[in-house]
Design brief:
The protein has about 120 residues and is an alpha+beta fold. This is NfeD-like C-terminal domain-containing protein.
């Protein structure tokens, strides 16, 4: 590759150009890093959790707008959803976490502060 670059650049007298080896080395390193970055992003992408659509709601937190015993309405991401509690009754205004979605119904459980990672506890 380096010889192709040197041969492609010619001086006015028709001879090979005078390109520093440092310039060629730097260009090769930058291109290699970009190639590795593109491959890593390409391999990592399919394993990421969906962040949009209905599938992106699983694991998200919300709020019960009415008592869930076992069914009621909740708000998740500012949207109103029909929900069913999978862990017993949930009171109005309690925080919930989405565990599953079937036929546009959210299945939820109470959001317990002890289950939150330490950096999310208040």
């Amino acid at each position: 590759m380096a010889t192709d670059v040197v041969v492609a650049v010619k001086t006015d007298d028709g001879g090979p150009g005078d390109i520093s080896g440092n310039v060629i080395f730097t260009a090769a390193v930058i291109l290699t890093i970009l190639l590795i970055l593109i491959v890593v992003i390409g391999l990592w992408g399919p394993h990421r959790r969906p962040v949009t659509g209905v599938e992106g709601l699983v694991g998200e937190a919300g709020e019960a707008l009415e008592p869930l015993d076992p069914r009621g309405m909740v708000r998740v991401h500012g949207e109103l959803w029909q929900a069913e509690s999978v862990a017993g009754p949930i009171g109005k205004d309690e925080d919930i976490r989405v565990t599953a979605i079937k036929r546009l119904r959210l299945y939820v459980e109470p959001l317990n502060n002890d289950k939150k990672p330490p950096h999310e506890r208040i």
